[in-house]
Amino acid sequence: MASITLDNLAHSYLPNPTSEADYALKELNHVWADGEAYALLGASGCGKTTLLNIISGLLHPSRGRILFDGEDVTEAPTADRNIAQVFQFPVVYDTMSVRDNLAFPLRNRGADAAYIARRVQEIAQMIGMEDVLDRRARGLTADAKQKISLGRGMVREDVNALLFDEPLTVIDPHMKWELRTQLKSLHQQFGHTMIYVTHDQTEALTFADKVVVMHDGRVVQIGTPQELFERPGHTFVGYFIGSPGMNLLDAEVMGRTARVGGTEIALDADYGRPKGRVQIGVRPEHTRLTREASGLPVTVTRIEDVGHHRIIRAEHEGRALNAIAPEGAEIGDDMTRVAFTQGHVGVFADDWRITPGKAA
Amino acid sequence: MALELRGVTREVGGKVHIYRTDLLLEGGTMNVLLGPTLSGKTSLMRLMAGLDTPTEGRIYWNGQDVTGMRVQDRGVAMVYQQFINYPSMSVYDNIASPLRLKRVPRDEIDRRVRETAEMLKLTPFLERRPLELSGGQQQRCALARALVKDAGLVLLDEPLANLDYKLREELRVEIPRIFEQSGAVFVYATTEPEEALLLGGNTATLWEGRVTQFGPTPRVYRRPADATTARVFSDPPMNFLTVTKRGGVVEFGGGQSSDMPGTDLAALPDGTYTAGFRPAHLDLARQGEAALSFECTLAVTEITGSETFVHLDHADTRWVGLIEGVHALRTGATVTAWLDPAHVYLFGESGELAAPAAYAEAA
After folding, report:
1. Which of A277, A323, B267, B271 could tie A312 with a disulfide, CB 3.0–4.6 Å?
2. What's residue B363's pLDDT?
3. ipTM (interface pTM)
4. CB within 8 Å: A306 and B192
């Protein structure tokens, strides 16, 4: 396994990029630690697959270098990078048995037969396919074939990194649980460096030690799931992580007070007088419906029962706002205001989070 | 408006795809078909649409038998997982195409296309071609083409499955709103319990070609008729434990028993039952005096940001708990999991619901 250094990396699909907007991947400088599990999270077109393809060597970057354990591999073809990849759709040899499919990467590298047999058995157990090892892959469901692809991706223990590109897209929700848990425990057991591309926040947050949130060709934040949830560095992270995303309200901030419409909201620190478009951001989990006269007036538009909690969809002066109420909590018709949990109101200026004290 | 399936079955080459099904879907209702891949959702939809003919049974539309009627002659609109639009036509022409086929007058086409586009937030994109739109906009265009027809029956087969998570979240909020304005019978197939809950309306749970239960969505969720329904309608899956009911108590193993307040134990014969409880009801902290405790080994934890999924091994069974807050726990650690008996469902030997959880009866 290896650490991965992204040094001044940038990529444009155009031959002569001029402005920043021409770059699908804007300049990037990071060192990803050996043995950590990273998720690249973002919407379609955010640049996450571009970045993954640069790491795997499928794409040569317009600028910058990529290093594995300090060694420059920018010019090295995929085959020389010693990585394993799993793609969105299964890549399986239909005419081979499940066993031979799993053994393929090991045989290719000339591993000895006893080791191959043992390792294939281990992997088969992990993906729950021990009983079909001697079946041909042809005729198996898409689910099963994707499990084979995952298994083959993980069969070699000596790879620099494991790269996954939306590997669970074709898998049923119930099975997703199992496979994700297996990937996670595999990571905890063997400490592979893993990079996992997804648009699904649940997959990213549950799988990764560190989540790399990308938006519009830029890495907007790298953090643990908890950091991204509690202290999103950018309004995009607030919106993208969490379901529903963070509530954002235009506000006038003065010191320890934010004014939204005619309502004053207490802040937990002195934010000074930030410039630009100033907003406060509060998670629906920290927003509750209330009768207290000091709350922010809202109109409730819809209440959705999602089982273990309810989502209250509301509006404040035409702006959508969501609150989460636990299963069984009272929701009265006279609750026409919302209140926020102390200490969970963030302040953003021109989309970036302000750290109190550092504000201009 | 109403669609009724009476004793409908479907066999293909001696293999049963749909077991005997009776369903009554009323006008102005959202009907969710919830089940894993290959449980029969698409087969059932094809029967409803008239794309396939039932082996047995009849299908009625507004009381009229339409069993053999071709799909073209029925007022049906379908939307599939793959967005199907004409790539060479503008969004406007895509939406207009079903009306042009029906030779609707030009003025009316224009009015209906603009109305539908407005409802689906496509007005700014009417002159573009589908491939110049985002995935979410493309699927909204496909939805618009289905809705503009004013069909009495609208069938949506996993329409959001190919979209990004966040777009899915937005469209899930929009679809019930669109549907409320239309008044048609909506049928919506999904593999995701959360999606069913967000859509509301009625839900039919499917498992291996059988409709296991049909009713108002929150009721099917809180009062599943059997263990199969409970398993289908729970993500992560419901947790199970074998228990013994003896006299006035249920024994949960390890010398623990509960009189299960709120559950009518007197009505149940003594014997073995399967206790079922949802991940959100398992806790790592004791909530209430009556809580039962279970020694477990921690297999994996997954942090979602605000919550933690803990995968626990209890005896030889894997359970999942959804715990509020962030808990960094060591794999292999021994932890105590707590469970309030008010959250326990009891299922009988053949999986039928013997007693619903007390909290569900109160909800």
Report:
1. A323
2. 61
3. 0.82
4. no
